Inverse folding.
């Protein structure tokens, strides 16, 4: 029998190699995947949002009356003592400018008041003259009565005339004083701004600090005229801080007073702790940065831990608040990145050897990192993290 030639064997070998290379090229290759393990641990369910630190009790000092507030010597951050530190000083403000009509009315009022003063002076002079006459008449009547020349009634009538004249003089003096004051009042209506007298030491009102603390804000700093009730200075105690966070109403209903919280992204390296004091019963509408109206509820928290840990925070600082609403321990945890929807159920891809196996499961509580596997997976199982759309049940995999 004739043996195959060497050339034929070479071509056969080449053909087999080409076929093997083609089969290897078209064969599906294993998909590179990231794999995680199901482990038992503690799951914390939290709600998170931005909050603002604020002093619990902020005292606003307001203007007690309309007047000119003098420039303040305080700066923001200055310490003040209750009843001792003067936070504002007031003096009377200048009169307003007069228009043409008001000035002419004022000038006419001054002239009328001056005429009334002249009339009162004339009436007083007349009353004094009548008093002098009555007194002289009484002297004559007394002498005549001593000689029994006139009756007792005539003497009494002379005495009555003197008393009446004296009363008339006193009335005239009072009337003259009233007219003079009316003249001063009329002249005062014509005063122009800057025409007042120099400041008197007792002309001003000094407002002391209502509490011990520090100046948080100077609403009015420079000298100016302010109206009664206008806020001037805000004072508070930086050691008495609280945190206010506006939660979505669907998150706020899960928060209970006394819940633990962590304060993050506040600027310090260490994490701070706080505790919920109050969930306000009233919500409000707030427009988000995307223009969406949201129902928000204000939640108030008290810082915990030593004051030194909070010393760098002040009034109105931004923080991130993470409030714990539920904690479950010793439960199997599956990474959130491994979960996806398969129909109406949750599912994962299990890594069994070099194959991916689709596994449906039931989950319970979850947070941003893990979910509790209530059925379908046991601790120790390995699952594929962030499965791609090319991964199917039974596909070959190669863990990275």
């Amino acid at each position: 029998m004739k043996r195959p030639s060497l050339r034929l064997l070479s071509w056969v070998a080449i053909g087999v190699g080409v076929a093997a290379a083609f089969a290897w090229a078209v064969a599906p290759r294993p998909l590179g995947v990231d794999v995680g393990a199901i482990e038992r641990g503690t799951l914390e369910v939290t709600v998170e949002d931005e909050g603002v630190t604020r002093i619990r009790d902020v005292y606003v000092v307001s203007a007690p009356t309309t007047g000119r507030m003098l420039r303040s010597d305080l700066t923001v951050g200055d310490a003040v003592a209750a009843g001792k530190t003067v936070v504002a000083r007031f003096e009377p403000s200048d009169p307003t400018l007069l228009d043409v009509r008001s000035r002419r009315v004022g000038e006419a009022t001054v002239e009328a008041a001056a005429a009334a003063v002249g009339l009162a002076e004339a009436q007083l002079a007349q009353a004094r003259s009548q008093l002098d006459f009555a007194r002289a008449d009484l002297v004559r009547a007394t002498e005549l009565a001593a000689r029994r020349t006139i009756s007792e009634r005539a003497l009494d009538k002379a005495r009555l005339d003197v008393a009446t004249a004296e009363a008339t003089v006193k009335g005239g003096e009072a009337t003259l004083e009233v007219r003079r004051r009316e003249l001063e009042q009329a002249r005062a209506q014509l005063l122009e701004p800057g025409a007042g007298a120099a400041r008197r030491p007792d002309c001003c009102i000094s407002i002391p600090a209502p509490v011990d603390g520090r100046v948080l804000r100077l609403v009015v700093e420079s000298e100016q005229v302010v109206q009664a009730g206008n806020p001037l200075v805000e004072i508070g105690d930086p050691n008495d801080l609280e945190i206010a966070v506006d939660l979505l109403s669907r998150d706020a209903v899960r928060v209970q007073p006394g819940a633990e919280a962590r304060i993050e992204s506040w600027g310090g390296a260490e994490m701070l702790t706080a505790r919920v004091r109050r969930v306000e019963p009233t919500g409000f509408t707030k427009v988000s940065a995307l223009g969406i109206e949201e129902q928000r509820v204000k939640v108030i928290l008290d810082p915990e831990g030593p004051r030194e840990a909070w010393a760098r925070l002040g009034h109105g600082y931004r923080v991130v608040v993470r409030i714990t609403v539920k904690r479950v321990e010793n439960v199997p945890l599956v990474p959130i990145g491994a979960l996806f929807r398969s129909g109406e159920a949750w599912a994962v891809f299990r890594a069994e050897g070099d194959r991916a196996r689709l596994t449906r499961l039931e989950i319970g509580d979850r947070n941003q990192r893990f979910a509790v596997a209530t059925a379908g997976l046991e601790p120790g199982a390995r699952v594929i993290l962030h499965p791609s759309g090319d991964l199917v049940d039974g596909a070959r995999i190669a863990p990275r």
Q: What stands out?
A: Residues 100-188 form one domain. The first strand starts at residue 31 and ends at 37. The mean pLDDT is 86.
